[in-house]
Design brief:
Helix 1 (about 15-25) runs parallel beside helix 3 (about 100-115), helix 1 runs parallel beside helix 8 (about 290-310) and helix 8 (about 290-310) packs antiparallel against helix 9. This protein is globular. The chain has eleven helices and 17 strands. It has helices at about 15-25, 55-60, 100-115, 155-160, 215-220, 225-230, 240-245, 290-310, 315-345, 345-360, 365-370; strands at about 5-15, 35, 50, 70-80, 85-95, 115-120, 125-130, 130-135, 140-150, 175-180, 190-195, 195-205, 210-215, 245-250, 255-260, 270, 270-275. It has a domain at about 5-45 and about 100-170 and about 265-370: FAD/NAD(P)-binding domain (3-Layer(bba) Sandwich), CATH 3.50.50.60. The strands form two sheets. Strands 3, 4, 5, 10, 11, 12, 13, 14 and 15 form a nine-stranded mixed β-sheet that branches. Helix content is about 35%, strand content about 30%. The chain is of the alpha/beta class. Strand 4 and strand 5 (about 85-95) form a beta hairpin.
Length: about 375
């Protein structure tokens, strides 16, 4: 890696979808960027791995052709209740399935080819004074920058250091993901509910099926392991039982992540511009968190470019503009996500909802529309 300058324009903490997208975008304007990521690439992550087509124009702008990576085009949706009652509809906007292993790695390679400075390390502290940031890493390195983007994911020890409010609240959810091979339509994304949780199912590249489910940790820990939990709880949904029992695992063992919270977060904390899950998480039942991460990267990058070019004249104006953009783009989505998840956490109510939607089939596309954005406009 080339020598990192004493003062950087932007430091990005976290090299997931949001962090990498921002790094590439900013590099197009010759902005001096350092991206700090603790992991190596490529790497699997616990994720639903469905992305709505709203982000395709932006990914193409960044130089990423997802279908060249093997992404599967998805235009159908189905939803089942704990009693295996099912609803189906077409996805008006549509989406695609691609693994984080593939898309994160493609974005990383693109960032490197765009001369983005990268550092494999963990950030342990961020200080702001005299209108600049001091970022300290686990390897006892300190870097200065004019702007910091936080894109380090759902939950981190850095959130404790920054004294963020959500980190003090309960984080009661556990997510489990595996890849399997079996018979499942390429063009379908499914969400199947079971008692205490739900599972997303869709194809990604190489004919692989992604299975990712989330559940309440209190419910899960009553069982001795994942296999017993699946057998006694998840498989009560007959669709999930069929998919799991008629497929072959690609992973040696499932991936897990705990302490997941859907509490409200602030998109600006301690003058740091937060992106992706670091700024806010939509409930996975609405299945569109990946596109939100990419969209937030675009919003943040455009405003930061304007700030560094003097079009936005103060840091306060930058922060207010990003807060406003975030709320305008995502507040309704997050509220709808919380609402839908709450409905389906009540088994009897969800059965009633399914019955109502069967009588009024246009309701389901309208609900889905509330959790998705419009195709992104590239300026």
């Amino acid at each position: 890696m080339n020598q990192i300058p004493q003062m950087l324009d932007v430091i990005i903490i976290g090299g997931g979808l949001a962090g990498l997208s921002s790094a590439i975008h900013l590099s197009k304007y010759n902005i001096n960027v350092l991206l700090i990521e603790k992991n190596t690439y490529p790497k699997h992550k616990v994720c639903g791995e469905y992305i709505s087509n709203e982000v395709l124009p932006y990914l193409e702008y960044l130089g990423i052709e997802v279908f060249d990576l093997g992404a599967q085009k998805i235009n159908k949706f189905e939803l089942s209740t704990t009693k295996s009652n099912i609803l189906k509809c077409d996805l008006v906007l549509g989406g695609f399935g691609i693994s984080r292993y593939a898309i994160d790695n493609a974005l990383y390679k693109r960032a490197k080819s765009s001369n983005v400075q990268t550092l494999q390390d963990s950030v342990i502290d961020i200080q702001f004074f005299n209108d600049e940031f001091l970022v300290t890493t686990k390897n006892n390195k300190t870097y200065k920058s004019r702007v910091v983007i936080g894109a380090y994911g759902k939950r981190s020890s850095l959130d404790v250091t920054l004294d963020r409010n959500f980190i003090k609240e309960k984080a009661p959810f556990l997510a489990i993901k595996t890849h399997v091979k079996g018979d499942f339509p390429n063009d379908l994304v499914a969400l199947h509910n079971f008692k205490g949780g739900y599972c997303g199912v869709s194809k990604v590249e190489n004919e692989i099926i992604n299975l990712c489910y989330i559940t309440d940790f209190e419910s899960f820990k009553a069982y001795k392991d994942i296999d017993e939990f699946q057998e006694k709880v998840v498989f009560k949904n007959t669709y999930l039982k069929s998919i799991f029992n008629n497929s072959i695992s690609v992973f040696e063992r499932p991936l897990t992540i705990s302490q997941i919270s859907f509490s409200n977060k602030s998109p600006v904390e301690n003058h740091i511009i937060m992106c992706g899950d670091t700024a806010g998480m939509i409930n996975p039942l609405c299945g569109n968190g990946m596109s939100m991460a990419i969209r937030s990267a675009q919003m943040a990058s455009q405003l930061i470019i304007d700030y560094l070019q003097g079009k936005i004249t103060s840091r306060l104006a930058l922060e207010k503009a990003y807060q406003k953009s975030w709320n305008s783009e995502f507040r309704t989505r997050l509220k709808m996500g919380h609402f839908v998840a709450k409905l389906f956490s009540k088994n009897q109510l969800s059965e009633v909802l399914i019955a109502v939607v069967k009588w009024f089939p246009m309701l389901l596309p309208k609900i889905i529309k509330q959790t998705h954005g419009k195709p992104m406009i590239i300026k």
